[in-house]
Sequence to fold (941 residues):
Amino acid sequence: MKSADLIPRNALAWIIAAQLLLLLPHVLRLPLWIVLLYGAAFFWRLQIYRGRSAVPNRWLKLLFIGASMAGIAASYGSVIGLEPTVALLLVAFALKLLESVARKDGYVVIFLGFFICITEFLFSQDLLIVIYSAVVVWVLTTALIALHRSAAIDDTGPMRLAAVMLLQAVPLMLVLFFLFPRIGPLWNVPIKTQAAKTGVSDMLRPGDISSLAQSSDVAFRASFAREVPPVSSLYWRGLVMSRIDEGAWRTVSYFETPPAERRAPPVEKTGESLDYSVIIEPTQQQWLYGLRYAEARQGGILQLPDYRLLNPVVLEQEFRYRVRSWPEAALGRDISPWRRRLETQLPEGSNPRTRALAESLYRDTGNDAEYVQRVLALFRQQPFRYTLQPPLLDNNSMDQFLLETRAGFCEHYAYAFAVLMRAVGVPARVVSGYQGGEINPVNGTVIVHQFDAHAWNEVWLEDRGWVRVDPTAAVSPARIEFGLENAMREEGSFLSSSLLSPLRYRGISWINALRLRYDAVTYQWQSWVVGFDGQQQIDVLRGVFGEINARLFVGVMLASFGSMLGLVAASLFLRNRQGRHRDPALRHIRLLQTRLRRIGFDLRPGESPGAMGRRAAERFPGASDDLRAIARLADAALYRPLGSEQRGKMQRSLRRQVRRLRLHPGR
Amino acid sequence: MLIAAINYENNMSYALTFLLATLFVVAVLHTYANLSGLTLHGSGGGSGFPGDLLPFSVRLMGGRQSRYALRVRWRDSSLGAGEAQLDVPPNASTEAQLYARASQRGRFLPGRLLVESSYPLGLLRCWTSVDLALSGIVYPSPQRHPDILGGSDPGQRGRWHPRPGEDEFYGLREYRKGDRPRQVYWKGLARGQSLQSKQYSTYASEDDWLDWDSYPGVPTEQRLSYLCYQCLQLHARRQQYGLRLPGLRLSPSDGAAHRDRVLTALALHGLTQE
Fold:
């Protein structure tokens, strides 16, 4: 193999640097052995470079591949799914380095690198990750350029050229990005099997939400078209749970619903409507959050019979959806016998003391609405405590909670309330989602954090349909009015386990201002870049161009590409041209030289304009007088010590002479 | 990558995919600019026998811009491999050495040169094929005539003609001004004879005329090959020789320059001058 076909050493250094940078964001998702494998591969490659060890032979390579496959299968339990696939790619990336000796192997490694860069985006499209990846792309491009250059290791040329080329490519990339039609997935792709599901789950046990309340992660951000409603009225419905199984509330699945009940009963849309869009962080779940009564303003989102929104596929990435809500609309004024039965069911023989309590309370009222008030009054008057650290209950016993411990978080109250309602045949269910949120003064979005997770109830009342009741509000009005942080001020348990969260330091004003500003940037990023979709694309294009048609599309594409490339080409080729000389005399001489060269007169390096003119005079006898005159004028204008006025005169007559000159090829 | 982007509906993947695509487009211009404005000067060529490698050199000048990873090779790849990679610093020049394998007798025209580069990304190759009017001379391949033994044995020579030289005594003649003192026949002078000079001669046979007509009935190329062989033999023996071809006569002489003249005449014999 010729040395010219080998990977230059500076390219090798860039490749290794790029590999390290690419590995870094994946590290926490990978089993440790892959990280160690990278270390070993780098060391081995270094030894190969120093000539101390050999490139692995075919059998050894096969052994490595087999062992890595087995290792991945063992670590992930399968080789199918996104994480094992990415791990496999990363392992291949490390192993490929070992056999990369020739330049063509260098290509493979670098293009694999670009692909791995994309896999990182499947996990996160956070602004910081994207900035980081831009650096990685820069390093990869540098490696690609260095692969074609034989230069010293400290040469910064490839770096600079890579930066220039990428910057030139960015405007064109943006054009493509905004114009490329967004079509749906072509086929099903491996999904993330290992990612933790975050947020509210479809099972609710006492203690579930209080554990969520320790997290300061953002659940979603909502931006309202008009004014943001009062925070205390922001009940983001996510899940409606109508069944109790083994002490846990859970949702009714599609198949448990009889066919006649699978469609949401029509809702009379009354009162003012609210338009807003939500960008939800990946949850690995399907449900979406909205204020009641919510309808999606875009296709592809399902409306379930209990009036909640469901995305047909699991949310693996940030997802943006647009919603319109009618907060005053009554939900489900008519209740079907099946639903009534469903919403009043209680497990046989559970919580006998609670049932007795419910019956005694109900007997005094006789009216469902009044009964609800009685129960809420009970929560208010009895010494119930709202706490993030409730005592454990045996078998999720509501008897124990209501009559003994009397300390719980929202899910305890919602649970107990629903049991109390169902015990006397009032249809009731538990709703979980988020309540409230933080309004970002920078851009007016509502930031909903995981600690805003909440559970409340819906009770069906005659003529009013499903009415929202929040028993937590009865116990701790501050929770609803001012959020969890204020409700837990005395207890000091707010975010007690996440010391690093900037939210803990909300008290320090500049940290808070910084946090809110960053959050606003994140929102812009998510809504314009990460969440950019077909709908937005059409909106933008319509906003800019009015009507959209194919011809316009192509036209914009061609025009933008043409102009951008024209600029790049101009910058590349103009630097190559001979610059204009500042001395006018030299400019005229240059013109003459061009003409002479064109008719076959050889220019000699180091020849003065005068000497050239005299030589040309011999060569072209027909113009010899003129050429001699030019030679004299050129010598005078260039070299004779003259005043500026006289020199100007010389230069002008030189120009006249050059213009007047007629040259004929041949002798 | 685009498929990954579409299937995962991942905007950043779209962005990176498009960035690479446009990088490719931008690379077209950069690759072209790397080659554009390059000045080439070809030289060399020289001469050789069929199958020899004739050296050529190409000087590349890049102007104010630096050029990287240029490759110069023959467009006709059967002529031989080219130079691997050359960089041209700004305002300087680099010389590429190229060798072409000479084929048949005559004026050797290696044809166009291919100057190419896939710098900076290696994804695109920009090339230009330039004609630098490079040429060389290919002599006939020397062949020994089976019957005439090419004068390899001086004893088998035919007639000998005396020619001025220093090898063998030939006779005496009247002293002329300019004769060296060593040449003067001092013994004769001592005997009272007139001042005479010794004459030496180098024997030259008829063979030291490389004659077209020596090989009647032999095809042209074959004849030229025989003559070529003879020429080389005579040159190796440092003899003087002349060349007689139809329409061409080179008077006898010796030395490398003469040999090259003779061989060139053989190489170009019968070929129209272009």
Notes: The radius of gyration of chain B is 31 Å.
